[in-house]
Each structure stands twice: as C-alpha cells, then as structure tokens.
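$ fold --in a.seq
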Amino acid sequence: MSIFNFKTKTINKRYEEHCEEARSFIQVHYVRERGSDRYAFNTLTIKSDPEREKCDEWYESHGNPNTFPEIASIYLTDKKKKDSVICKSFGLDSKIFSSDKKGNVEKWEALAVCFGLNLNIAESRRLLKSEGYALTNSSISDLVIRYCIENTIYQLAEINYLLQKICSRNLNQL
C-alpha cells in the first residue's frame, strides 16, 4: 500500500467521522420555526457567554466598527492574515475587503471570510450580522456551518465535504 493511499483513507475516515458528529449536532440543535404564536418557543438568553463577552470587548477596543469591510480589515490585521490568501483559498473576489465594493456581500462570501479568519462562533455571528445574516437553528446548512466553526474546521475541502454529504450543497451555494 502506498503512502498516498494510506493518507487518503485517513482523510476520508476523518471526514466521515465529522459527518456523523455533524448529523448528531443537527439532531440536537435543529428547531423547526413555526409561523404561529401557538408554536412559539420560549427562549432564554444566556446570562454569561465568555466568547460573546470577549467579542464585545474586542469591538469596543477597536472603536465599534460596524461595516463588513471595516471589521474584516481589523481582523486581518489582528490575526496577521492576508486577504489575498483568504480570497485564493475560498474563491473570493478581492473587492470583498474593500469599502468600494458595490452591493452586499453574499452570505457564503461572509462565511468564507469567517473561516479564512478562523473566527469563533461569537465573532462569526457578529461579522455576519454586519451584513444582515445570521446562523439559525432551523436551517440544516446553517447548523453544518455552525458545527464547523465550533469544531474549528476551517478548510474549504472539509467544509464542502460536510455540506455536500448532509445538504447536497457547497459553501458557495449558500
């Protein structure tokens, strides 16, 4: 058996393990949204979330940026990442980081930036919110994305593998 075949089998096994874990994650977190008050869910706000609090502090310490390019630019500097590397890795147009970009950033593009910057769930939610997006518990693809972020799965091949197996989509189709 060649080393290449062994490596491929190891990667495929890891991907399949992630698929099983993601499916369990979805079963636990998936909630069908109801259009009627009769089915409304009572939600409790979390009193303390260290990741969210740290994220809030980060925003305050950076002058509370509120636009996607502004936030992404600060993260690029803080995390010592290059926008060109993120664009190449995820197939993004380099204008996504520019304040001159015409039109909104698509959800998949915003998610790709979250992955490229290795953001945690609180940071990702905040960056997505700057473009009017959210990760919901009523979307299986959003739960797969959330699973990836919470389990620090940031490689496009692995993300697309999970999305393809569970949702029959790739990141750029969200």
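$ fold --in b.seq
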Amino acid sequence: MTTFAVSEEKQKLLKERMQEVGLKEEDIEESFVRSSGKGGQHVNKTSTCVKLKHKPTGLAVTCMRERSQSINRFIARRELAEKLAESMGLVSVKATKADKIKRQKARKKRRTAKKLETASNE
C-alpha cells in the first residue's frame, strides 16, 4: 500500500478498513486534477484534487479538502472505503456518528421538556 503524509496509525486503520470491505489498490483508478477554492497560487499551479473510482462497483469519490495531494489521496481512499461499506450494508463511521448525534439531540429534547414541565407546575 502507498504511504501518505499522515501518521502510521491512521494508515494502519485505513488499511484494515479497506481489507474489511474488500477494497484493493489494484481495483482503484486514480486521477489528479487541479483543485478549486482556497489555497491561492499553490492550488492553481498543482493538481491536488484526487479522483478515485472503484472499478468493480463504479463508485467514485473526489477529494480536494486539503492543499496536499498526499493527504487528499488518503482522505479519498477513506471516503471510498466508507462509501463501499454503506453500499454493502456494513456499519459505516458516518452512520455511527449520525446515530450518536440523534441520541444526543433526543436526550437534550427530553431534558428541555422535563425542565419546562417542572417550571409550569410551579
């Protein structure tokens, strides 16, 4: 696997996630394009935007979040692995975070309702 400009721990986690969902480097078609947005001259001169396509499924991901091509390559692979996991019906990090936020909002709503109820009774 290619090394990226991120910690070894993050690379290890990405490699494990790719193995979980059956994503192989040889199944990924990678291309680089010029990014847009913030970054000034650096973004205008270099091709930091990364486009990944999973050949067997046709899933595609574009990442131009960072100014570094290496970091964008890492993020794009992580996003592709999550997208593939969702399409396979596996638990994804995105779904887990969304569930956590829903639980937090429900708890906050219950607390507020309880406060209003006790305030109206007084």
